[in-house]
Specification:
With 732 residues, the protein is an alpha+beta fold. It is built from ten helices and 40 strands.
Length: 732
C-alpha cells in the first residue's frame, strides 16, 4: 500500500454551493506574522495567473477557491500555465551562483557502485547493483552463492528516454521466474510481466494491466501467483478506484482476462485490499486495511470457497507471518509499541492466542521476520535501530551487533536457512550490507558503498526539545565537526509526521555539500510517525494533526534558542505528507523560516479526497464531507490560509507531471496563491519534473539536476557562502 507518501471518502451530508464573490473573500482569517526580511532582489515579476470569484459554502462556512481552474490538468490553459511557470523557474535556478559546482559535486556523490543484500530462491540468488556509469539499478541473478552474475532486468534498456521504470520485482520460490511491474513515467500505475530467469525471455502471454497495487504471491510450484488487481475502466472515477481492488489468481501461460477472482472488491474507496500466501501454499490471506491504524484479516486454504475471519481490527492492526501450521501475529492490540502472538489455525479464536513477545515499554517494534528458525525483531529506541533474535517461542537469544548507532533493516533470509543479511547506515556512514549467522550470531561485512567523502569530518547528535503541549520530541542534528553555536549556521530542517512512517538516521549523500558549507541538517521525529508506536502516530493524525505542525514549530524555536541558527538562516523541507507539513508551517508561522522547499504536497485539505488516491487517506486526515472533520481540516489547510498582507519565506515548490498518487493540483493552486499575495516579496518558484511520478524520476541524472536546483536555491535565498569541501565555487 503506497504510504503517501499516502491516502478516501464516503459521501456525507454536505451542502455545497458556488457563489460569485469578490476576490478578497479568500482573506477571512486574520493574517499571520511576517517572515524575516529577505535580502536580495525585489519582488519577482511572475507569469500572470488569473483568479476566479469562486466560493463553496461547506457546513455553513464560506470557503474561497480562486484557483480551482488549475485543478484541470488536461485543460490547454492549465498546460500552458504549467509550461510557463516551469520555464520561469528553471531560468531563475540556472542563473543562481554555485549551481554548476553543486551539480558537479552531486555527480561525484550519486554515480556510485553499490549492491543490495541478496534474495535466495531455490539455488539462485537475486540482487541489484548500481553502476557509476548507469542511470538505474540493474537486477542480477546467479546460480549458487559463488555463481557467475548475469543480468536479468536492466531498466536502462527499457526505453531510450528512461521514462519506463521497474517496480517491485518478486522471484518465484523455485527461482525459475520473476514477476515484475513496469511503471510509465515512474508513476504508480503499472503493467505486470513475467520473465524466465534461465533464458531471459519475457512471457508474451503473462502481461497483466491494472497492477497499480499488485504484489505477486507465488505458489510453491511456481506455476502461478495471487495478485491485487485494479480495473483500468476509465468510467470509474479516479477517487473511487481503490474500492474496486480484487484479489485474483493467475496461472502462467493463460490469458490474464480469465484470471479467477478469489476475493471480491470491498466497494469502499477508503480501504486497501492486500493478499498473501504462505510459502508452503497452505494458507491464503486477505487483509482489509482502513488507513494505517486498523485492518481485518481473513484466511482460508486455497481451493476453499469461504473465507474465515481471523481477527476484526477495531482500532488495531495485525500482520500475519505463517510458518509450519502456525500464524505469528504482530499487533498493537493492547500494546501501542506492538507485541507478537502465536496462533494455531486449528484453534484460531482470539482467546486461544498465545503471547510470544510482550510489548517493550522502552522500544517500538517496527517489524518481524522469520529467519533461520528464529524470530528477528526490528525495534526503534529513540528512533535508532536495535535488532533482536528470539526463538520461535519468543525466548531471547541475542541482540545483533550493529556497527554503531544508526538505522538497520531487519534480517533478510529464509525461514529454514541460517544465513541472513541486513543493511546498515548512519548519517555519517554510507550503506553497508552485512551477513550474519542466525545460529552463531557471527556478523561479517558483505558489501559497502564507497562514497567520495571523509566520514570523520562530520558528526551527528540527538537532542530532545519540548513541543507546544510539553511533549518531548527527538531530533537528529548533523554537521561538520568544529561547528560554532553562534546562531549563524544555515540549517535545513526536515520532517514528515504521518502515516506511521519513522524518520531514522540513514545516510543521505545529498546533504554533504550543505554540511561542507557549514550547514546543519536536522531531522525531527514528529508525532504522526511510528517512532514510539501507535500512540505517537495517533497523536499526529485526524483531529490531532495540529500537533505535528506544533512539533515542527518547536524544533525551529529550539534551534534558534540554542544558538544553532536563526530564522533568516533556517529552511524547512518536506515531501508528500511532509509537503503538507511545511505548507502548514509556512502559513502558520512564516516568521520562523527563511526558506521552504515543498515537494509533491497536499495543500488543499478541503478537496484533497476528490483527487488521486485521496479517499484512501481519509482514515489519516478526515474528510471535509464530515462537519467536524471539515472544521479541523479547514483550520490548517495551507491553501486556504495564504494571506494577502503577509510576507512569506522564499518558496521552491517541487512537483511532478505524472504524480498519480498526490494530484499536482495542490502545488499549482498553492503557488498561484502565494505568487499573487500582494504583500509577499520573497521568491516563489514552481519546478515541475517531467516524466516523473510521486517519488520523482528514477534516473541519477534527474536526481542530480533536482538536487542542484534545490540547494542552489537554498544557498541563494539564505545568503550562504559558496559550497566548500569537495565543491569549488565558480570563479575561485
Amino acid at each position: 500500500m503506497p504510504a503517501l507518501l499516502l491516502l478516501s471518502a464516503c459521501t456525507s451530508t454536505k451542502e455545497a454551493t458556488r457563489e460569485e464573490v469578490p476576490p478578497s473573500a479568500s482573506s477571512q482569517v486574520p493574517a499571520g506574522t511576517s517572515a524575516p526580511a529577505q535580502e536580495g532582489p525585489s519582488r519577482m515579476t511572475y507569469p500572470a495567473t488569473r483568479s476566479e470569484a469562486v466560493v463553496d459554502t461547506l457546513h455553513g462556512q464560506q470557503v474561497a477557491d480562486p484557483y480551482r481552474w488549475l485543478e484541470d490538468e488536461k485543460a490547454p490553459e492549465v498546460q500552458a500555465w504549467m509550461k510557463v511557470q516551469d520555464g520561469f523557474t528553471r531560468d531563475a535556478l540556472a542563473k543562481m551562483p554555485g549551481r554548476d559546482a553543486l551539480a558537479k559535486r552531486f555527480t561525484e556523490l550519486f554515480y556510485v557502485d553499490s549492491v543490495t543484500a541478496p534474495f535466495r530462491r531455490g539455488q539462485r540468488y537475486f540482487f541489484m547493483r548500481t553502476h557509476k556509469d548507469k542511470e538505474k539499478a540493474i537486477v542480477y541473478w546467479k546460480d549458487g552463492e559463488s555463481g557467475q552474475e548475469k543480468v536479468l532486468l536492466d531498466p536502462n534498456a527499457l526505453s531510450k528516454d528512461g521514462q519506463v521504470s521497474l517496480g517491485r520485482w518478486v522471484p518465484s520460490w523455485d527461482g525459475k521466474r520473476v514477476a515484475f511491474p513496469l511503471r510509465p513515467n515512474a508513476a504508480d500505475e503499472a503493467v505486470l510481466h513475467v520473465v524466465d530467469v534461465a533464458t531471459g525471455e519475457w512471457s508474451k502471454v503473462d502481461v497483466i494491466e491494472g497492477a497499480k497495487y499488485a504484489t505477486p504471491h507465488w505458489t510453491p510450484d511456481g506455476k502461478g501467483f495471487y495478485y491485487e488487481w485494479l480495473p483500468t475502466d476509465p468510467s470509474i472515477p479516479v477517487d473511487a478506484r481503490p474500492g474496486y481492488t480484487t484479489l485474483k489468481f493467475h496461472v502462467l501461460g493463460q490469458d490474464p482476462k480469465n484470471d479467477v477472482v478469489v476475493h471480491e472488491r470491498t466497494g469502499d474507496p477508503t480501504t486497501f485490499l492486500q493478499g498473501d500466501l504462505s510459502r508452503d501454499g497452505k494458507y491464503l490471506f486477505v487483509s482489509i486495511l482502513r488507513g494505517w491504524s486498523e485492518n481485518d484479516v481473513y484466511w482460508k486454504h486455497p481451493g476453499e470457497k469461504d473465507w474465515r475471519l481471523l481477527v476484526k481490527g477495531k482500532g488495531a492492526k495485525y500482520n500475519v507471518i505463517p510458518w509450519k501450521d502456525r500464524f505469528y501475529v504482530v499487533t498493537d492490540e493492547g500494546a501501542p509499541r506492538q507485541r507478537v502472538f502465536g496462533v494455531d489455525p486449528k484453534k484460531p479464536e482470539r482467546a486461544n492466542w498465545k503471547e510470544l513477545v510482550s510489548e517493550d515499554p522502552k522500544a517500538a517494534l517496527e517489524s518481524v521476520s522469520l529467519v533461520g528458525g528464529h524470530l528477528a525483531l526490528e525495534y526503534l529506541k529513540d528512533a535508532t535501530t536495535e535488532l533482536r533474535i528470539t526463538t520461535l517461542e519468543g525466548k531471547p537469544v541475542r541482540t545483533v551487533q550493529l556497527p554503531g548507532v544508526g538505522a538497520a533493516s531487519n534480517l533478510l533470509g529464509l525461514e529454514d536457512q541460517d544465513d541472513a543479511y541486513f543493511a546498515y547506515s548512519s548519517f555519517t556512514t554510507p550503506r553497508q550490507v552485512y551477513r550474519t549467522s542466525v545460529k552463531s550470531g557471527k556478523v561479517d561485512l558483505w558489501a559497502k558503498v564507497e562514497v567520495p567523502m571523509d566520514p570523520d569530518a562530520y558528526t551527528a547528535e540527538q537532542v530532545f526539545y519540548p513541543s507546544k503541549d510539553g511533549t518531548k520530541v527527538p531530533m537528529f542534528l548533523v554537521y561538520k565537526k568544529g561547528l560554532k553555536k553562534d546562531g549563524n549556521a544555515p540549517t535545513l530542517l526536515y520532517g514528515y509526521g504521518g502515516f506511521f512512517v519513522s524518520m531514522q538516521p540513514t545516510f543521505r549523500a545529498s546533504i554533504l555539500p550543505w554540511l561542507d558549507a557549514g550547514g546543519i541538517y536536522a531531522v525531527a521525529n514528529l508525532r504522526g510517525g511510528g517512532e514510539y508506536g501507535t500512540a505517537w502516530h495517533d497523536a499526529g493524525k485526524g483531529a490531532n494533526k495540529q500537533n505535528v505542525f506544533d512539533d515542527l514549530t518547536g524544533a525551529a524555536e529550539f534551534l534558534a534558542k540554542e544558538r544553532y541558527t536563526q530564522a533568516k538562516k533556517l529552511a524547512i523541507y518536506g515531501g508528500s505528507n511532509g509537503g503538507l507539513l511545511v505548507g502548514a508551517a509556512m502559513t502558520q508561522r512564516p516568521e520562523l523560516y527563511g526558506a521552504v522547499v515543498c515537494g509533491v504536497p497536499l495543500l488543499d485539505m478541503v478537496r484533497y479526497h476528490l483527487f488521486g488516491s485521496g479517499r484512501t487517506w481519509v482514515p489519516e486526515y478526515g474528510s471535509a464531507d464530515d462537519a467536524a472533520q471539515f472544521k479541523t481540516l479547514y483550520a490548517y489547510s495551507p491553501y486556504h490560509h495564504v494571506r494577502q498582507d503577509v510576507k512569506y519565506p522564499a518558496l521552491l515548490m517541487m512537483s511532478s507531471d505524472h504524480d498519480d498518487r498526490v494530484d499536482p493540483m495542490h502545488a499549482r493552486k498553492f503557488v498561484a496563491a502565494v505568487q499573487n499575495a500582494k504583500g509577499n516579496s520573497a521568491p516563489t518558484l514552481l519546478r515541475i519534473e517531467a516524466n516523473a511520478g510521486h517519488g520523482g524520476a528514477d534516473q541519477v541524472a534527474k536526481a542530480i539536476e533536482s538536487s542542484a536546483d534545490m540547494y542552489a536555491f537554498l544557498f541563494q535565498v539564505l545568503d550562504v557562502a559558496r559550497p566548500v569541501g569537495g565543491v569549488a565555487a565558480e570563479g575561485q
